[in-house]
């Protein structure tokens, strides 16, 4: 190998961006999975399909799912599991969709 190894420069802006990317909850990964499923935080997903346990945020979405997946079964709103009714929402937990920093 010839030549000198160039010292890699990190500007304060780059470092801040990296830190931000590492510590900001963007709803992805394992932590975001709980958000998306709505199990942990009682957030997005409201209704659960009684036939295949798929979750949907609202009745309309669930009906679309039902028509697509279970066309032979009559759609019964009463049979849907309302996750918001059965799960107690803990207000101390961060709400889904919040994009605040986890570390300060
Ligand atoms: Zn289903």
Automatic annotation (TrEMBL):
- Establish whether keyword Transmembrane helix is in the entry: no
InterPro entries listed in its UniProt record: MBS1/2-like
Among SUPFAM superfamilies, the record links this protein to:
Expressed protein At2g23090/F21P24.15 (SSF118359)
- Extract the coiled-coil ranges from the record: none
Where is the stretch described as Disordered?
A: 1-45
- Record's compositionally biased regions (Basic residues): 1-11
> What are the protein's UniProt keywords?
Cytoplasm, Nucleus
Q: Which domain of life is it from?
A: Eukaryota
Q: What is this protein called?
A: METHYLENE BLUE SENSITIVITY 1
């Amino acid at each position: 190998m010839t030549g000198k190894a160039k010292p890699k420069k990190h500007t304060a802006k780059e470092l801040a961006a990296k830190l931000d990317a590492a510590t900001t909850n963007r709803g992805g990964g394992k932590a975001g999975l709980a958000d998306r499923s709505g199990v942990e935080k009682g957030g997005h997903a409201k209704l659960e399909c009684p036939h295949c346990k798929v979750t949907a945020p609202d009745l309309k979405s669930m009906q679309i799912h039902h028509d697509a997946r279970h066309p032979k079964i009559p759609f019964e709103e009463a049979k849907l599991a309302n996750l918001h009714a059965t799960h107690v929402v803990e207000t101390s937990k961060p709400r889904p969709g919040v994009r605040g920093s986890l570390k300060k």
